[in-house]
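Predict the assembly for these two chains.
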Amino acid sequence: DTGVSQNPRHKITKRGQNVTFRCDPISEHNRLYWYRQTLGQGPEFLTYFQNEAQLEKSRLLSDRFSAERPKGSFSTLEIQRTEQGDSAMYLCASSRTTPNEQFFGPGTRLTVL
Amino acid sequence: AQSVTQLGSHVSVSEGALVLLRCNYSSSVPPYLFWYVQYPNQGLQLLLKYTSAATLVKGINGFEAEFKKSETSFHLTKPSAHMSDAAEYFCAVYNNNDMRFGAGTRLTVKP
């Protein structure tokens, strides 16, 4: 069990640029989740996958956000035309279907200038 | 919709004192409940979970929590705080593939 990994750990970008984050879940976990966490708040659900299927998306996930998990293993989260309000920590988690405890990665901290 | 309320955004205790972090939940069905800890610039680490078995749940690092259905609470306790316990703590409720987190409680431990 190597844990959930996320890359990059930090990303600084200018407003209007596109960014992509990667998450590698624990290998035997078929569920993968993306969350966004702003300062002083708990994580907010964005979307989740069961294997390669994206089963649910939060209304927080605007059209500028897209997530993929093409082979049911790693996942990418892309933000197009970044805005300053996108600055946050983006957390990835994975789990088995049951039990449903989620294991979190270290997060990617995005700063949009 | 389910939700979590953590009472007290900041809690300060002295080293060796009792730690009590409060969590109340709202859920229309029996929930799964979790406590996570987050250290600066890190992801969340699971402390303990309630999954409808024993109502008193023991977790890592000496923490435990008691599920009280009548009070819709799942408070986190530790008998004796250690400096290394200083962190942000999040309570979460899970049902039907939906995980909701509280806003967190920052624990400060004074020497």
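The longest strand of chain A covers residues 88-95. The CA atoms of residues 10 and 109 of chain A lie 5 Å apart.
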